[in-house]
Amino acid sequence: MRISPDSIIYWQTELFTLNATILYTWLVMLLLVLGSRLVTRKLQTGERMPRWQNLLESIVVLINGQIRDVTRQQPERFLPFLGTLFIFIGTSNLLSVVPGFHPPTGSLSTTAGLAICVFVAVPAYAIADNGILGYLRNYIQPTPLMLPFNITGEISRTLALAVRLFGNIMSGSMIAAILLAIAPLIFPVLMNLLGLLTGMVQAYIFAILAAVYIGAGIKVQAKKENSG
């Protein structure tokens, strides 16, 4: 039983290895690019819009509302980043029900890469609002003795994001494989349905946690500027 798609090698040279993680990551990105092109090429304005556009705009409004509730900020500038995280993770997890597809989110290298993106985005948004000096002062508040603890907190938060997503997807795949081996005629449909639900929940949790971290970084900086 393979724990990670990293171990599935399709092509290898001295300089490059094409494994399942890379292949299916490219596949998901290709599907998202083509899908977004097809969905957005005939957008219309006015009172009469097609039903699919109404549905698309409703989803965007729902995501904006979630971002606004979490960050207490206007959601438009966060939507591209957080929306991309949610769509990529959700699509990867949903495609796991397709026979032969290995979700890239089942690889720790993928989840670590996504977590690093959040790790970079948190100070990026905070610096954009408060400047680099205002952001760096956060690490020595309320006392310079807190510097190592604040740095450790940033690192451990990133590790938790990566390991949480990887662990849930990997364990779900292992449980499905075990149950499929025990009762191949009973569990496949149920496990596929459970996999769909779990995959979307994990995508939602990852995006929400990213929004929480970004919103917390911005609000901490803003609070200190106002109190000063």
Judging from the principal axes of the Cα atoms, what is the shape? globular
Q: Which strand order does the major sheet show? A: 1-2
Low-confidence stretches: 221-228
Helical coverage, percent range: over 70%
What is the rounded distance between the termini?
57 Å
What is the β-strand count? 2
| Average pLDDT score | 82
Strand content: under 5%
Sheet/helix structural class? mainly alpha
Largest sheet: 2 strands, antiparallel
- Elements, N to C (H/E): EEHHHHHH
Structure overview:
The chain is mainly alpha-helical. Helix content is 72%, strand content 3%. The chain has one domain (5-227). Helix 1 packs across helix 3, helix 2 (51-71) packs across helix 6 (187-227) and helix 3 runs antiparallel to helix 6. Strands 1-2 form a two-stranded antiparallel sheet. The longest helix is centred in the C-terminal third of the chain and has 41 residues, at 187-227. The protein has helices at 20-40, 51-71, 79-94, 108-137, 147-182, 187-227; strands spanning 9-12, 17-19.
